[in-house]
Each structure stands twice: as structure tokens, then as C-alpha cells.
Design a protein that fits this description.
This protein is an alpha/beta fold. It has 2 helices and 8 strands; from the N terminus they run βββαβββαββ. The strands form 2 sheets. Strands 1, 2, 3, 6, 7 and 8 form a 6-stranded mixed sheet that branches. A two-stranded antiparallel sheet has the order 4-5.
Length: about 150
Amino acid sequence: MRLVIQRVSHTAVIVAGKIVGQCDLGFCILAGVKIGDTQAEAKWLANKVANLRVFEDGAGKMNLSLLDVKGEALVVSQFTLYANAQHGRRPDFIDAARPEQAEPLIEYFVEQLRAEGIPTQTGVFRAMMQVEIHNDGPVTILLEKEAESAS
């Protein structure tokens, strides 16, 4: 799984002109699922996200986690995170998981964030969405966990 995590002062996702998910202080998380990803990667990433120390403490140092600041998360599924644009002009998405695999894994990731104590809202899987992001800092982190090999 691959995540683009943006520290935000506000974020919202809009579908057909209606806000379907939003949060203020916290993270906007764009989440992509790769073929072969499992719940193990999703669980590891949820724990990492909840404890990632990218919020400023009283001394102005990035030393506080989402849990520490009582922040929220908005998770938006985004298969385009696995775009391959190395050849030609149109990217391919061969490495992105099919919706049948990706949707349950995104839902599991969201459940795990909530289990970590993070209030979490989502976009709408497979919908055309507009995502409003007020990146705070700006702080943007790319976080990835490759599927463990069976050997």
C-alpha cells in the first residue's frame, strides 16, 4: 500500500456537489492499493499513521502525533498512486489492485485507523471526487509498505 499523507488544517471530499467526508486538524490521506497487498500492510500503516510525529509541540518541533493532538483523518482511495508513466504519454495502472481487492483493503485500513483511536471519514470508492486540501506547513509524507514475501 502507498499513502500520501498531508497534514491539514481542513480537508473535505465532495461528490456530486455534496460534502461526504471532512476533517479539520489532522491528515488527508490519499491511499493506493497494489496487487498483492494484504491486511498486514494496512494494519502496519494505520499504526504508523496514528503515531507519526509531524505536529509541532510547544517548542515548534515536529514531535507530536495525530493521537497527541486529537486529530482526525480523511481517507480517499486513489488508484492513480500506482500509475506508471515511465513510457509513453499515458500512464498505465497495471500495478494497481482491482476494485474487488482494493475496496475491502481500504475499508480495513480505515477500520484500523479507528481502532487506533483516530476519528476517520472517507470519500466514496470509485466515485468522481473533488478533494479540498488545506495543507498545513506544508507537510506531505509519502509512506509505503510493500507486501511481505512468502519465502
